[in-house]
Amino acid sequence: MRGCAKLRTWALVAIVSVLCLTNGCARAYADEGGDGAATRTAPDFNAGAETFEFQAEVSRLMDIIINSLYSNKDIFLRELISNGSDSLDKIRFLSLTDNSQLGEGDAAELDIRIKADKERKVLTIRDKGVGMTKDDLKNNLGTIAKSGTSAFLDQVAKGGDMSLIGQFGVGFYSVYLVADFVEVRSKHNDDPKQWVWQSKADGNFAISEDEGEPIERGVEINIYLKEDAQQYLETSTLENLVHRYSEFINFPIYLYSSEEVAEEVPVEDDEDEDADVSADADADEDDDDDEDADENDDEEEDDTPKTKTVYNTVWDWKRLNDNKAIWLRSSSEVEESEYSKFYQALAKDSSAPLTYSHFKAEGDVEFKAILFIPEVAPSDYYDNYYNRPSALKLYVRRVFISDEFDELLPKYLNFIKGIVDSDTLPLNVSRETLQQHTSLKTIKKKIVRKALDMIRKLAEEGADAEDDEVADDDADKKNEESKYEKFWKQFGKSIKLGIIEDASNRTRLAKLLRFKTSKSDGKLVSLEQYVERMKEGQKTIYYITGESMDALKNSPFLEKLIAKDLEVIYFTDPIDEYTMQNLTEFDDFKFSNASKEDLKFGDADDDEKARFKKTKEAFKTFTTWWKSKLPDDAVEAVKVSNRLSTTPCVVVSSKYGWSANMERIMKAQAMGDESRLQYMRGKKTLEVNPRHPMIAALKARAASDPDSAETEAMAKLMYETAMLESGFSFEKPGEYTARVFDMIKTSLGVEKDAELVDETQFHIVEEEEEKEEEEKEEKDSEGTEEAPKKDEL
């Protein structure tokens, strides 16, 4: 069936039947004793039929098929429907030159029909394809040449391309996963007789003239199901399998099923009389007026025919594959509404997609695909990121293969839904086997490129919309989110993960990044927009990471940058730290973290450099003194800062160490490695603002009395406060709080070593206050009694 060459799709049925016999997977049922229950007996060959023996190396081949290729019994229906579809394709092709091949009436309707007979435990699949003659049945279903079997085994042994279906006829034999007896009834236009091919799974098959119900043309397969495969007689199971595997077959697929239909029928006279008697018995007869009203109502009701609702079980043919394979058409021929409808059916999503890409790839590997980006991400999308399967469905010649192919898309693009249909891939029966196919790498490369182009176009549309001038009175349109802003809110984290995971596409992904900056006024901007508005002479892209936008805007690290009118990127997502470790430059501009040492502005002239050098020399003694008063492992150095304006001092990370934000993130890891934490923290540097009055005062005190305990405490307190303001934490917070309380004591005039107050003093004071309150209340009451009453006055 799969064209002329594909008639051999039916060719290995005998092989499977023999293997099923040897493995005990197919038996003739008889009384088993014990409980005395009798089971059904498989049908026998027709009387007078000509019997033949299979000719093949059966056991070796079937062992491979059953134990390796067919990992799922459900695919038997997929294979038989695919064979029927190919047979229909052939008769349609023949009808192009000879219209009489189709016939007239019902025979001209090309379709596939499935019917389950629960009483006989038989599943029937019928197509109106080209059919087979007696010789076709014998040659293609019964005679399996030894050379052909050996060739298949040799190909498997060499690890070659196993394009099984249509080449060796393996697809048909999946039926023996669920059947112990198969009957193939066939009628071909070139043969006046109708024939039946039968196999009992005992090493033989039989062909005889079919005396059953005539079929005008095509093939009817009757599958006598095993006892453990009775679920395939349920219409719901069959319907689900067709929807899963064969939804986009070119020809209609019908299932004979039932449904409950409501119908209004007249109430019979005896039922009507019973109802009237019951109503009369329950009625109240309080007065004559009520009786007259009831009689009038009865007279009105008598004029209207009385009916009741009954539910009837109606059996009819139900079409299962209404959805069309729109990816086979040119994108110019498909309407926007068709894409939305197709997406909703595919993704089981009521909303329209955010965008889509419909394309055809040509070359060594040819395939057609439609990719969709959903409007909303699942609520738990990033909770199970690395274990979430791909949302792409792989089809081969419109036959569904699997939706669990991680080889088609990298993890960071798993939010993309769609269909990939290839004509060049082998239609293997096992997804495990197809995953090893070399063509998948080529398909993946092309799909990733198309997916990134789709996202890029979405971003460009958003940028164009921002550039368009909007009327002042159209405020709603101004505030409306662009499609790419919606995408970024839902899937922006995936782009950042892509920068981490996909080095080959890092530059493309960097152009898709969006963030807020010190000049963006709360709007999202791209790296390209940032570079376009860089100041003349600026050689660095500045950014800072932190816990929240408010914290970053008020960060002391940005004081000089903001003063110099330099734009700074704000990163508040924890994953941004990992992203920027992998993204070191963009358009030849290096990234610089504003919270790390050696921050350069690139605009200092020679005079400014000379002044700064003199300042460092003037503060050398002071910074050396301050470093000596801090713990040995606290900071690597104390330096004069060029980044501060109004803040006295800050603590910065080393150039290649973790920032304060990254350190906070790593400390929060439940499975964090303490040894790695100690190593990657790096060294810290305390930078001081030489122009700040607090620094000037501390410098003067350190110069006049360098051994003063009070001055040393002030230096430590300023360092610890700078640690907190810079986002760091310290291991001994108790020492910091003790110094803060000592400073508060001094401000309140309390001695540092003042003793605790005795509790009894509070009790005495409280008793005295209570006594005074009682005396006051007594005086107030006496004054009230002595005062003259209003009447007396």
Task: Please give a quick description of this structure.
The chain is an alpha+beta fold and 793 residues long. The chain is built from 26 helices and 22 strands.
The helical percent reads 25-40%
Computed CA radius of gyration, to the nearest angstrom? 43 Å
Largest sheet: 9 strands, mixed
Distance between the ends: 125 Å
Please indicate the percent range of residues in DSSP E strands (runs of 2 or more): 15-25%
CATH architecture classification name of the largest domain: 2-Layer Sandwich
Q: Can you tell me the CATH superfamily of the largest domain?
A: Histidine kinase-like ATPase, C-terminal domain
Number of continuous helical runs: 26
Which CATH top level class of the largest domain fits?
A: Alpha Beta
State the secondary-structure class. alpha+beta
Features:
793 residues, alpha+beta, Heat Shock Protein 90, Ribosomal Protein S5, domain 2, Rossmann fold, 4 domains, 9-stranded mixed β-sheet, 26 helices, 17% strand, elongated, disordered N terminus
What would you note in describing this structure?
A 9-stranded mixed sheet has the order 1-6-5-4-7-3-2-8-9, covered by helices on one side. A 5-stranded mixed sheet has the order 10-11-14-12-13, with helices on both faces. A 5-stranded mixed sheet has the order 15-17-16-19-18. The chain is 40% helix and 17% strand. It contains 26 helices and 22 strands. The N and C termini lie far apart (125 Å). α1 (13-23) packs across α2 (58-69) and α13 (483-501) crosses α18. A hairpin with a 4-residue loop joins β5 (195-199) and β6. The protein folds into 4 domains: 60-256, 2-Layer Sandwich (Heat Shock Protein 90), CATH 3.30.565.10; 326-459, Ribosomal Protein S5, domain 2, CATH 3.30.230; 513-603, 3-Layer(aba) Sandwich (Rossmann fold), CATH 3.40.50.11260; 606-748, Up-down Bundle (Four Helix Bundle (Hemerythrin (Met), subunit A)), CATH 1.20.120.790. The protein is α+β, with helices and mostly antiparallel strands. InterPro entries: HATPase_C_sf, Heat_shock_protein_90_CS, HSP90_C, Hsp90_fam, Hsp90_N, Ribosomal_Su5_D2-typ_SF. Residues 778-793 have a biased composition (Basic and acidic residues). This is Histidine kinase/HSP90-like ATPase domain-containing protein.
